[in-house]
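Repro:
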Amino acid sequence: MANTLIPANWQLPDYFRGRLGSNVGRQRLMQHEGQLLIVAHRVPAADENTRQGILFWYDSRREWHASNGDPGKIAIQLLIDRYEKVIEQFDQRESHAQIAHDYLPLLDGLAPVMRSSRNFYEVLQEARKAAPELRELIDLRDRAYEVSRTAELLYQDAKNAMDVAVVKRAEEQAIASHKMSVSAHRLNTMAAIFFPLATLGAIFGTTLTENWTWSKTASPFLLFVLAGLAAGIALALFINRPEK
C-alpha cells in the first residue's frame, strides 16, 4: 500500500520509497541524508486486523509533513492525543466493569492499543537518538512514554480485576453448590428417618387392621411409630457414618 500511503505531492527520496513495501509493516524509523521518515500506525480498533499507516516526514528543509493531512508541526502530537483519548475511554469502561464478561471486550480492544503505543514510543526514542538537534522530539517521546505506560497499567489493572471477578464468581458458585449439597443431604436424612415408617405403613396400614383384638388400643400404634422412628434413626446414622 505504499503508493496510496505516500501523498502524491511528496518529493520523498527514492531511498525511502524503496524501503516501503506494499504493506505498511511495523512501526519504524528511516534516516537518510539528514531526513527522517517515521512509519507509524493509526490508533488500532478492536476488530481491526490490518494496521493503517501514517508517515511523518522530516525533509531537507527541516519541515515536518504528515501523510494523513494533519499540520506537520503538530501531526505527531495529534496522534499521541488520539491515543490518550482512546485510552481514557477504556479507562472509563474499566471503572464500570463488574464481571468477567465486561472485561473481555475491554482487554481485546486495549491490547492492540497498548502494543501500538509502546512501539510508537520506541520509534520516537530511536528518532530522538538519530536527530538530537530536534528538541521537539524530547517532549513528544516523553508524552508517548506516558501514554504507553498508562495503557500498560490499565491493561494490567483490567486483567487483574477480571481474574478477581473470575475467582469471586467461582467462589460464589462453590458456595451455592455447597448449599445445594447440604440441602440435598438434609433431605436424604429426613427421607431416611421416615422411610421405615412409610414401609411399615405400606405393609400393615396405619390402622393396624381393625379386626385384630390387640389393635383396639393406642399401644400398637405407638409401638408402630416408635419402631419406625428407631429404624429410621438407625438408617440415618448408617447413612451419615464417617468414612474410614
